[in-house]
Amino acid sequence: MAKKVAQSTSLPSLDQKLAMAKRYSHEGVVAGAKAAVMASIATAIPTLASVRMLPWAKAHLNPTAQALIISTAAGAAYFIVADKTVLASARRNSFNRLSTSNSEA
Fold it and tell me: Membrane spanning segments where (predicted)?
């Protein structure tokens, strides 16, 4: 009986879990925003250069298409990096929790 009580007190409370979730989601947002900026720059330079230099691109890529290409790359980079960051943080937290519960048992 005492073992169960000791284990239940060592688990993080609901407030701690909520705080960790907020911190991890904020880390994901920041990392995603950084990736979106980098993807925008990396996509905008060749897109705008090709529209100025290549006749096919000049004829077929109007400003809306150019913006769509750049924003699609930025959006994809944001969601991929944010998701990977949140999942990595959750995985790290679950391993930390497993190691602390194994050391107590």
Answer: 29-51, 63-82
Q: Which domain holds residue 31?
A: 20-104
Determine contact, residues 102/10, Cβ cutoff 8 Å: no
- Residue pair 6/104 in contact (Cβ under 8 Å)? The answer is yes
Mean pLDDT of 31-40: 97
7 token code pair? 């284990």
For the chain, what is the domain count?
Answer: 1
The number of residues making up the chain comes to 105
Q: Nearest-5° angle of CA 43, CA 47, CA 49?
A: 120
Determine, yes or no, domain membership for 7.
no
Burial grade of 1 (CB within 10 A; 0-12, 13-18, 19 or more): exposed
> Is 65 domain-assigned?
yes
